[in-house]
Amino acid sequence: MASAVQTHCDRCEAPLMRDAAYCENCGERTHRAKRLVRLAVRVEILFVILVALVIVGFTYVFYVQQP
Ligand SMILES: [Zn+2]
Fold first, then answer.
1. Of 4, 12, 30, 57, whose CB count within 10 A is highest?
2. How far is the CA of 42 from the centre of ligand 1 (A)?
3. Which residue from 25, 30, 27, 39 is spatially nearest to 6, judged by alpha carbons?
4. How far is the CA of 8 from the centre of ligand 1 (A)?
5. Looking only at Cα atoms, what is the longest distance across the chain?
6. Would you say residue 57 has pLDDT above 60?
């Protein structure tokens, strides 16, 4: 993936503000925003897996401790 700062929109070629997340002209996400979204999705999936493991763990302990 190119690490150079994106200066123009992929879709409409309009100049982008520095560190912009969206194109002001057409609303297309910039490379930076796409990368952040991918990272956020990954973190969210990890979090969901973690919560599921905790729930399964507590359910298991609950049933094991039944008299
Ligand atoms: Zn654009």
1. 30
2. 26
3. 30
4. 8
5. 69
6. yes
